[in-house]
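Sequence only, no structure available. Ideas?
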Amino acid sequence: MTTHASTVPAYAAPAAGAPLERTTIARRAVGEHDVLIDIKYTGICHSDIHQARNGWGEGIFPMVPGHEIAGIVTEVGPGVTKFAVGDRVGVGCLVDSCRECDNCKAGLEQYCTGGSVPTYNGLDKNGEPTYGGYSTHIVVDEAFTVRIPDGLSLDVAAPLLCAGITTYSPLRHWNAGPGKKVAVVGLGGLGHMGVKIAHALGAEVTVLSQTLGKKDDGLQLGADHYYATSDDATFEALAGTLDLIINTVSAPLPLDRYLGLLKTDGALVNVGAPEEPVSLNVFSLMGGRKSLAGSGIGGLPETQEMLDFCAEHGLGAEIEVIRADRINEAYERVLASDVRYRFVIDTSTI
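Reply:
I predicted one. C-alpha cells follow.
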C-alpha cells in the first residue's frame, strides 16, 4: 500500500479563462478502501470548459478538469473488495458523497443532500481540492469507481462516464422505450449518446438540431427523424407529437416553442446547463399538463447499469483522440461545435 502521497503530471488551468498548461499535482496515499488508477483516457466534456472559465460560478484554481475517466487499477487498499489490480475501471463526475442521506442510501449520490464531492473543482472531506482526469493517475474510493465491461474499449468508454449516464438516466426515468416518441435537442457530445441509447431502448427517435448539417450522422447513430430547428415548419409539423424531449444544449432555448411539441403529459428534460437563467410562459405547461424538468448525471448503481447496457448493445462514444498538448485547441473546437462527437485525451501524452 502506498503510504505516502505521490506527485503526478497533469494539465491545469492556472486561473479562470487561462489556457491549460502542463504541471504536477499531488495525489493522496492509497487508503483502506481506495484504488489507484492508471488513467488511460479522459473525455473532454463541455462542463470542463464552463468550469475552467468560471461559467458556472467561482471555481477553485489551479483546476485540473476531467470527469470522464477510464483506466486500469494498479494498486488497491487493504479493505478493497470490489476491484483487483488489472481491472478496467471508470470514474465519473463524483468521487464521494455523505453516504448517509436518503438519496445516497437509494443509490442517487448525484442528489446527495449532505454534500457530494465532485471529481474536480471541489473540496474533499479533508478540505483539499479535488483534481480530475487530465492527469496520469487518480486515487478514488472503490465505492465511487465503476467497472468497464470487457466489451467496451477504454477510449470509447470514457465519455460514457458523463455523456452516457447524463442521457441514460432521464431516458430510463421517463420510460423511453417501444411506443414512445423521444426527441433529442442538439447532436453533440451528450446528444449523440442520447440518440444511441434512446434507439437501443426501442424508442422512436427524432433529432432536433439547428441545421441539417449532421443529418446523415444522426440517422446513422439511430435517429428515425431529423429536423432543423431553424425552420419554423419543424415546430408546426411536430406540434403535440412527442412524449419526451431531452435537451442537451447548454444555450438558452425558446422553451415555449419546444413545450408545444409535447403530447399531453409530455416532459421536456434539461441535461444541458446554460450559464444564464431561462424563461417561459407557464401556460405552456398548463395546456397539456406538461412538465419542464432537469436531470443530473446518475448515481453509482445506475452508472454501472448504463455501462453494462452500452456494452451489451455495442454502444461507445464517437470520439476523436487527441494529445494532451491539444487540449486548448480542443476547447475552442468544442465551442465551435467542431467535433464529432467527443474529444478524448490520450493521457500517455501528458
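The mean pLDDT is 96.
Hope that gets you unstuck.
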